[in-house]
Amino acid sequence: MWQTDSLWFEVAVVSTTIALGHIFLGHFEERTPSIRKFYKYLLSLLVVVGISILFGRTVAFTVYAALFIPVLYIHLVLLPKKGINGWTGEPKEKYYEYRKWNKDIFSIRSEKSKRQKDCIQ
Question: Which residues contact residue 46 at a Cβ distance below 8 angstroms, ignoring those fewer than 6 apart?
Fold first, then answer.
């Protein structure tokens, strides 16, 4: 029952890693479309499983670990150079500017609430 010699082990490791990434660092992707996040997961899964089939588990996990080098570089080097905390993504204004997102996160909500107030009065 607890054998790890099937491809399900690779699926479990990739899925767990992606889930933990979304739990602890998901605030960096709050404006990224869900479909893009899904494709990122699917691509990671296909790469690891495909390499595992073709070259073996050790090579697959080595490649998967190497994919974290750019993530570490971005969070530990690049973001702090821009004045952004690599763990919390703060200040949000700088991070949103870096990602080229709209800085006014409440603009849609405030417009809706103004319209609702106007309708009520």
Answer: none
Q: Radius of gyration of the chain from Cα atoms?
A: 20
Q: How far apart are CA 96 and CA 105, in angstroms?
A: 10
Task: Tell me how long the chain is.
Answer: 121
Weakest-pLDDT range from 2-6, 28-32, 70-74, 87-91: 2-6
| 3-class secondary structure, 91 | coil
Euclidean distance between CA atoms 110 and 107, whole angstroms: 5
Query: Domain locations in the chain?
Result: 8-120
Mean pLDDT throughout 2-24?
A: 88
Q: For residues 31 and 73, is the Cβ–Cβ distance under 8 A? A: no
Measure the CA–CA gap between 23 and 27, rounded to whole angstroms: 8
CA 102 from chain centre, in angstroms, equals 19
Q: Name the band, by pLDDT with cuts 50, 70 and 90, for residue 69.
A: very high
CB-count exposure of residue 60 (10 Å: 0-12, 13-18, 19+):
buried
